[in-house]
Amino acid sequence: MSGLEFYTVYTWHVNATDSGSGQINSEKYTFATESGENEPPGKPTIEGPTSGKTGTTYNFSFTAIDPNDDLIWYYIDWGDGSNTGWIGPFNPNETAIKSHTWFFQGTYILKAKAKDQYDAEGSWEMLVVSMPKNKLNNFNFNLLNLLFERFPNMFPTLRQILSYKS
């Protein structure tokens, strides 16, 4: 142990005397100590919708705090086989906003973690996002088919909305 404190600026004054001439020379040196140990950022906070429609783009925000106030990068795994890779840098406690679109129905586990400028990685945080089936997909079209065939000119607007072809 050196006896020096972390995060402290020290100044040394050095005086040298030439014994032959008696000339005195003074210099001033300043240095700062760094942190003792680098700690990783905390789990990021993830904010965004937890359900939606396939094919729609949604924004998510990610915020993490670094105990050493280091710059932060985020890694986001969207749960559908895609990820962002490391994005950044961001200031500690600065919000990063990323957008994503899911193209298939299902439930996805969005995961994110943060690392600092010294590559200390924090833990994963997760958010479950659901892209449910469209309610019309579950509708029984047999009745509609029967009505469209029996009364072909009766429901032109409904026929157009559903893109029904006879």
List keywords for this structure.
166 residues, mainly beta, Immunoglobulin-like, 40% strand
Instruction: List the secondary-structure elements in sequence, H or E.
Output: EEEEEEEEEHH
Based on CA inertia axes, which overall geometry fits?
Answer: rod-shaped
- The CATH architecture classification of the largest domain is Sandwich
What is the radius of gyration?
A: 31 Å
What is the domain tally? Answer: 2
The fraction of residues in strands falls at 35-45%
CATH superfamily membership of the largest domain: Immunoglobulins
Number of DSSP strands? 9
Molecular structure report:
There is one protein chain. With 166 residues, the chain is mainly beta. The protein has 2 domains: 45-133, Immunoglobulin-like; 135-166, no CATH class. 9% of the residues lie in helices and 40% in strands. It is built from 2 helices and 9 strands. It has a 4-stranded antiparallel β-sheet with strand order 6-5-8-9, with no helix packed on it. A 3-stranded antiparallel β-sheet has the order 3-4-7, with no helix packed on it. Strands 1-2 form a two-stranded antiparallel sheet. The mean pLDDT is 83.
